[in-house]
Fold these 2 entries.
Entry 1:
Amino acid sequence: QVHLAESGGGLVQAGGSLRLSCAASTRTLSSYAMGWFRQAPGKEREFVAAIRWNGGSTLYADSVKGRFTISRDNAKNTVYLQMNSLKPEDTAVYYCAARRSALVDYDSWGQGTHVTVSS
């Protein structure tokens, strides 16, 4: 497992942007596939985006496709989630997660960062 720490959340108006960061404790972040998830109040945690170990492939939930971009800088041991055209329904706690491969579950999770989008 790897220790993950999210940052960059906050309050933003609808239509605005935020960039979330996920810093990993490991020097071998390139060994992990990474994902972003979110949990809105009263709802279950849901998948947002994922990226392969080398950034060569990404996947997005339909609800964020075209607005959010996941990226990674393995040299900085950091994964990012650029969120544009934010909507009130994007309000949630955002978590980053890591796993060794797409064949296993995510087994390392951060503590989350709050994102609030006001209308």
Note: The chain has a mean pLDDT of 95.
Entry 2:
Amino acid sequence: QVQLVESGGGLVQAGGSLRLSCAVSGSSFRFRFNSMGWYRRAPGKQRELVATIGYSGSTNYTDSVKGRFTISRDNTKNTVYLQMNSLKSEDTGIYYCNFVPSFASWGQGTQVAVSS
């Protein structure tokens, strides 16, 4: 069974940066040959997909994070990353990783809080 463990969140001032990591265990094959994504659940809102990376490395971002967030993956470590720069208060939320589409059980996520 695939397990997802997110880390790297924290409290940061607006304009700051954070780097999130997601370790995927249970199936190297599934990780290597599927798209991965970072999802965000902002307070009072539904979870949304903010960044996607294909198995070949192609990326896609929701408009609100374009130019500020960068998703990457290391297939040798079964890990996906999210570099978040120029953070804004509206980036506050719990960040989760999962496949795209999200067929694995959700992890606990990692909390990101941006103070203005």
Note: DSSP finds one helix and ten strands in the chain.
